[in-house]
Amino acid sequence: MSLLLGVNIDHVATLRQARYAMNLDAPILEPSILEAALEAKAGGADSITLHVREDRRHMQDDDARLVRREIDLPLNLELANTAEMVAFACDLKPDFACLVPEKREEVTTEGGLDVVNNQKSLRKTIATLQSLGIQVSLFIDSEEDQIKAAADIGAEMIELHTGAFALTTGEKHESEIKRLRVGSDLGSSLGLQVNAGHGIHLENVKDLFSVKNLKEFNVGHTLISRGLFIGIRAAVNEMKVAMQGYPQS
Predict the structure, then answer these.
(1) What's the confidence (pLDDT) of residue 24?
(2) What are the sequence ranges of the domains in the chain?
(3) Sign of CA dihedral 150, 155, 156, 157
(4) pTM
(5) 21, 22, 61, 154: which sits with the fewest CB atoms below 10 Å from its CB?
(6) How far apart are CA 122 and CA 126, in angstroms?
(7) Which helix (H) or strand (E) holds 194?
């Protein structure tokens, strides 16, 4: 099975909110979240990812419901581990739920979830979501204790945070690749599906080819940015082509 691509369309909503944040009842809202998802699908997306944040800074509840209803691809909902957002996920019933850390002051998700120190709460949330047939992933840093804790509390998947990998060069970059390689091997050995995401783009994607056992990349910002110039469909297809050749274990 080839490496899968989950396309995150959050930043389409970010652009929309720049104009319509205070008037979501306008007769025409652009850019269209639904059209973005359809274009991502046409470009070869294997799933659609969106993050409904507690402050609703970009994606709104109705956006998620629309994509869930109209797009026949698996939906991956990113969410914070709070009562409000877990209740929303239970109502939406996405195919996948990825629990992520969330801070109001951050621009985008920074760092991985602290599974080790939040096992009791996360275990309860995972069980709740899984009881509805939702597969659960945890967005974590590639650290041994976090990966082992993710397996211990019953998650089916982890998504390794590749932000540090994306922001480094030279020896530090190679060190981050090694860290991801070790984490991916460990996660796979524990029976977890191992995905990766954050900061992946055309210039660094092949650097991850030495990280074995990965099943899916979740990519967003670069595809929407590239899509401004060549269209989302073409940008997604371009990434899919760049991902070809990833060695299958």
Answers:
(1) 81
(2) 4-243
(3) negative
(4) 0.94
(5) 22
(6) 6
(7) strand 193-197
Task: CATH number for 4-243: choose from 3.30.200.20, 1.10.10.10, 3.20.20.70, 2.40.160.20.
Answer: 3.20.20.70
b/e per residue, 208-238, with b = 16+ CB within 10 A?
A: beebebbbbbbbbbbbbebbeeeebbbbbbb
**In contact, 45 and 236? CB cutoff 8 Å:** yes
* Tokens 């840093």 belong to residue: 141
pLDDT tens digits, 88-116:
999 999 999 999 998 655 555 567 999 99
